[in-house]
Amino acid sequence: xxxxxxxxxxxxxxxxxxxxxxxxxxxxxxxxxxxxxxxxxxxxxxxxxxxxxxxxxxxxxxxxxxxxxxxxxxxxxxxxxxxxxxxxxxxxxxxxxxxxxxxxxxxxxxxxxxxxxxxxxxxxxxxxxxxxxxxxxxxxxxxxxxxxxxxxxxxxxxxxxxxxxxxxxxxx
Amino acid sequence: xxxxxxxxxxxxxxxxxxxxxxxxxxxxxxxxxxxxxxxxxxxxxxxxxxxxxxxxxxxxxxxxxxxxxxxxxxxxxxxxxxxxxxxxxxxxxxxxxxxxxxxxxxxxxxxxxxxxxxxxxxxxxxxxxxxxxxxxxxxxxxxxxxxxxxxxxxxxxxxxxxxxxxxxxxxx
Lengths: 172, 172
What we know:
Chains A, B: Pfam families: DUF1993. Chain A has 172 residues and is mainly α.
């Protein structure tokens, strides 16, 4: 038995997006308990030239949206050019989950050998096949930003355990 | 076209292990240039109750070795119970790559529905199928530890860019 492209993309993205949303609940609870402005947490970063927590969440959503749109050949979901607070970040994660789940699985599964072109923020482009996009780029990028969001919160003193990254046990 | 279990596991692990090894080269060069004891870098962590850089590298290797051994039903590679320096960490990454590449791909591909049991350091166990092990646990854990190793180095001031996490473009 093999793995479908949909299982390896949407099937991985959605549960970890839910975990990311739950990490933001921990951030909110931590801020409430310590009377910290949540905006301070969202602005934290591990190095001056790395993305903030707010941006890490945005990048996780972005890689899900762009890879699903590229694979299925549909218009990517876009968010307003505003600075989201925790509630808005959670709403964007929920919208990203809805978008990913709304893409027809057969459209993604059919894209394994399809040529797709990813456009970076710089405007630079890189060609992929659907399969190489998922295995070598989008899933690694996705986990990079989720893990770094988790790392920023741990560094900020939020009481998380590894299970908060992994989420509840589930079938593939 | 679908993705084989081997492509989704060894095919992902090996290039990112190479990237991790290259991150350690950057750490060594940084330590040399600033006359920092490399052991200080290897002992850094993002929170007092998180693993150090040295341990993050060890965990990345461990998840590769244990998942490949569980899937293929072979004896996992084991390392001496010593405190590795950068050269030894790089040697262990190279040995992990050799181990992963030495597992017969058909043995991994045949394990999608196989029941496997992962044993945590605590002694607790969790049952998986081969496919759920890879998609929901081992690959996410692997990327968690690679991204966190990268994050520790960025936080320590080592001049890395995202490409150092992603590695060179490649086919899936």
